[in-house]
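User: Hi! I have a protein structure encoded as tokens and I'd like to know what sequence might fold into it. I'm fairly new to this, so please keep things simple.
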């Protein structure tokens, strides 16, 4: 195989982004798209000069791989259909709606020897990739992850744990390389029953101390990872694509104008160079390479399963003690 023939199921906002990148990616051919909305599907197909397929089975017959950019509740059904047709998959996160579905998907993919990559796109964020390089030579003692967004424009179909925090459950498992031994979590709802703000503490046998906050009730959009190490303090801005390393220098005693001995210790702030690449481009490029070279992706189906498992554990703990914030009363009501 010299070129990967790819289709896209679901051409909403994210699906259209996939189409844009795939239509310009080397060693790929965007064959066609499918969407529940015939009007949207035809419009996107025309935009990218490909065929619209009203029948998914017909699209499956013409591709080697498929991108599933559909709502989570239909991931399992669509993924299983692809696997049974021998079609490789890149499925947006979370991998499925339930752990049972994810487990069955992982087993079938292994049995059929079909590649499944899960769209945890932050793994391909150049800032995160460079952060891992920086941490190779450091010893993290504490890690804090913050993923905050305003309510307007957020995904209302699922709670904030499965919408936002699941990005970080995957990053955490990748960074630490182990599953937490103990989890504590708290959360609140401010807009009708679903979790809107969540805080989780994860405990590992050999460290580090780790905390995650995900919110869709903050007015500022934040995507940050802060790492406290013995040797330095690292600030990673996933949104701004920047990394700062704060390092201390050796203190010194100085004699200023013979007025007595003083002690001085300075801190050096190092700005780490972060390459400029679009994460979605890197993700789809990696997916294509894995299909062509028959190699395991960075974010496999099993990785997607583990990220979902951790997110569901956190969500269940929160739901047992969910705090409800009362809506403010309007003047005169």
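Assistant: Happy to help. Inverse folding works backwards from shape to sequence: for each of the 333 positions I chose a residue that suits the local structure. Here it is:
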């Amino acid at each position: 195989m010299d070129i990967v023939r790819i289709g896209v199921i679901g051409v909403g906002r994210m699906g259209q982004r996939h189409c844009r990148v795939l239509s310009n990616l080397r060693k790929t051919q965007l064959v066609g798209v499918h969407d529940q909305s015939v009007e949207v599907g035809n419009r996107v197909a025309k935009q990218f000069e490909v065929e619209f397929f009203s029948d998914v089975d017909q699209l499956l017959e013409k591709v080697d791989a498929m991108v599933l950019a559909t709502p989570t509740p239909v991931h399992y059904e669509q993924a299983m259909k692809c696997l049974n047709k021998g079609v490789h998959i890149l499925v947006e996160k979370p991998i499925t709606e339930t752990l049972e579905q994810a487990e069955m998907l992982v087993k079938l993919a292994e049995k059929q020897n079909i590649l499944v990559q899960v769209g945890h796109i932050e793994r391909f964020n150049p800032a995160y990739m460079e952060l891992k390089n920086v941490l190779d030579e450091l010893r993290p003692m504490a890690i804090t992850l913050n993923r905050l967004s305003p309510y307007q424009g957020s995904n209302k179909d699922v709670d904030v744990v499965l919408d936002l925090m699941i990005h970080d459950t995957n990053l955490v498992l990748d960074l630490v390389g182990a599953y937490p031994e103990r989890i504590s979590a708290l959360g609140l709802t401010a807009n009708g029953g679903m979790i809107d703000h969540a805080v989780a503490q994860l405990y590992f046998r050999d460290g580090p101390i780790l905390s995650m906050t995900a919110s869709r009730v903050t007015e500022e959009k934040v995507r940050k990872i802060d790492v406290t190490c013995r040797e330095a303090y690292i600030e990673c801005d996933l949104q701004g694509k920047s990394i700062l390393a704060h390092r201390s220098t050796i203190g010194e005693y100085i004699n200023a104008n013979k007025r007595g001995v003083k002690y001085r210790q300075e801190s050096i702030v190092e700005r780490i160079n972060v390459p400029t690449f679009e994460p979605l481009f890197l993700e789809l490029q990696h997916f294509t390479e894995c299909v062509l070279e028959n190699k395991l992706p960075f974010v496999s189906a099993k990785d997607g399963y583990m990220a979902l498992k951790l997110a569901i554990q956190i969500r269940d703990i929160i739901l047992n003690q969910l705090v409800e914030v009362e809506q403010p009363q309007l003047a005169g009501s």
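A useful reference point when you look it over: The chain has a mean pLDDT of 92. Feel free to ask if any position seems puzzling.
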